[in-house]
UniProtKB/TrEMBL annotation:
Record domain Pseudouridine synthase II N-terminal: where: 27-179
Family listed: Belongs to the pseudouridine synthase TruB family. Type 1 subfamily.
Keyword tRNA processing: yes
Record-annotated active site: 42 (nucleophile)
Annotated catalysed reactions: uridine(55) in tRNA = pseudouridine(55) in tRNA
Its job: Responsible for synthesis of pseudouridine from uracil-55 in the psi GC loop of transfer RNAs.
All copies of domain tRNA pseudouridine synthase II TruB subfamily 2 C-terminal, residue ranges: 244-298
Name of this chain's protein: tRNA pseudouridine synthase B
InterPro entries assigned to the protein according to its UniProt record, in alphabetical order: PsdUridine_synth_cat_dom_sf, PsdUridine_synth_N, PUA-like_sf, PUA_sf, tRNA_psdUridine_synth_fam2_C, tRNA_psdUridine_synth_TruB, TruB_C
Source species: Rugosimonospora acidiphila
Amino acid sequence: MPVEPTGLIVVDKPGGMTSHDVVARVRRLAKTRRVGHGGTLDPMATGVLIIGVGRATRLLTYVIGSDKVYRGTIRLGQSTVTDDAEGEVVSSAPADEVGDESIRAGLATLTGRISQVPSAVSAIKVNGQRSYARVRAGQDVELAAREITVSRLELLAVRRLPGLIDLDVEVACSSGTYVRALARDLGAGLGVGGHLTALRRTSVAASTPDATGFTLAEAVTLDELAEREDPITLPLPEAAARFFPRREATDSEARVLGHGGPLGPVGLAGPYAVFAPGGEVLAIVAERDGRARPEVVLAPAGG
């Protein structure tokens, strides 16, 4: 029986595709159904999309919950139904009189721990139905605000057009942040409306400051992926070592973990990856109540 491929793929997602489109393409290339992604990118957006294959799909919950960095362009002077360039313009107001200092002050109000109402045209479920489906069906949708963290919202460039202003920005933010909602809220705060015209995810942060995340520098395009014999760019042990702090297990500890049992604590900030003496990653564990307890067991069945 062929061995199922297992690991992560750092894809440079093209525009015009959904994240699920990318998953479907990887399923064909990897010849397995067990494929998932670590955090949705809108069809308009490009950049780092982490794809998990085989047992590595168990890591995706941590990838989804990690911080992200984006570069994008905000257009002031127009609001759209989707808060980005894919939706029709619903209102316009001349932005010529908005000064650079007002723009910087507006960006500052959107930095730090803030409350954000997600875009109505989003994949959030309302009573079991996606919000975007309700909007397209003509329903009024009001989503609840959620707490997010924008650790950096940097203004890179300002381009003034007749009645409009385009702002290039870099955003470092927590999971669950809608960058197009930041564009909407900036425009609303300045009284001229705003929406996102371009977005590129440049990195996905690691689980802790002691580990290393994933960036565009190592991302591959789908065309490049199709030319590879092995679609996996990061085998499971390497992926876990990159994303989590590392703990080495003894043979006896490896046997305990293989059966889902806890280990003694070593004082590492969790979650962290535990490796067998032979280099295989066994589990992702977290220390609590004086024990290192497995959150995800990664050793293959019978291993």
